[in-house]
Amino acid sequence: MEQSYFKEYYQLERENWWFTVRRKILDERINHLLNKPTRISSLNIGVATGTTSDMLAHFGEVMSVEYDENCYQFTQSFLSTPIIQGSITELPFENNQYDLVCAFDVIEHVADDAKAIDEMIRVCKPGGHIAITVPAYMFLWGPHDVVNHHYRRYTLKQLTTLINQHQGSIIYKTYFNSILLIPIAAFRIVTKLMEKIKGKKEPISRSDHDILGTNGFFNGLLAMIFKIDYYLLKWGIRFPSGVSIMVFFKKQ
Question: Which residue in 55, 139, 208, 236 is a FRET match for 95, CA 20 to 30 A apart?
């Protein structure tokens, strides 16, 4: 993440269509898949400005980890639950410590994603759960990925192959943000074509959020469409494709 970018995240995470609806989806899926937990211990890795930690607090105690020192300093000044600075590839916790270990759109930022997953599973209790979301499909790669310092985007098979190297089982897997896949793909492709037409030697590193904004008509429209995914997932639908991927793993 760009050093100045985390400050914009505070507003983004609380107003932008993608953050607000994704959080609603995660809250519902955790509540359903973990059978309405109320007293579990959760570890939330890569928390940015903390809205997912606030969400996890509904289920019990939460410890947060943020890698970026400036973002950590910013978030710890107001987050109501504990937060430390640390790396997902070297988590400063004992083995078998947490009931739920989460990395929501984090491991795509890590060069050694296999090590990141190893560490998540190490600190998870036997019988506990790992929850991971990541961006999908390298053909969707664009300036948004560049400015966010992504190493890769995934297919569901690539992510589950990484996770299945550990003892336990995947209890839930799906693509999501699926209703908007075609318009988002078109947006990314047109952006790339426009850059080529304009003859830019280097792509402009701009987040999608910079272009679409955090509020207003389009923000509300996109939130309304994305909420269709929320209801379909809640009703048991699993999507064969989408802009994002979600996987829950139960440790043996």
Answer: 55
Cβ count within 10 A of residue 152? 16
Sheet containing 60-66: give its strands across: 83-85, 60-66, 40-45, 98-104, 124-135, 244-251, 168-176
Q: Where are the alpha helices (DSSP H) in the chain?
A: 5-15, 17-33, 51-56, 69-76, 113-123, 143-147, 156-163, 181-198, 208-212, 217-234
Query: Is the torsion defined by CA of 68, 146, 151, 28 positive or negative?
Result: positive
User: How many angstroms separate the CA atoms of 54 and 5, rounded?
Assistant: 21
Question: pLDDT digit string (tens) for 145-182?
Answer: 988 899 999 999 999 999 999 999 999 999 999 999 99
For 201, phi and psi rounded to 5 degrees?
Answer: -70, -35
Q: Which CATH number does 5-251 carry?
A: 3.40.50.150
Of residues 46, 238, 218, the one with CA closest to residue 131: 46
The per-residue pLDDT for range 30-59, each reduced to its tens digit, is 999 999 999 999 999 999 999 999 999 999
pTM over 0.85: yes
Tell me which residue has tokens 């107003």: 15
Q: Which of 130, 14, 118 is nearest to 75 (CA)?
A: 14
What burial class does residue 234 get, using C-beta atoms within 10 Å of its C-beta: 0-12 exposed, 13-18 middle, 19+ buried?
A: middle
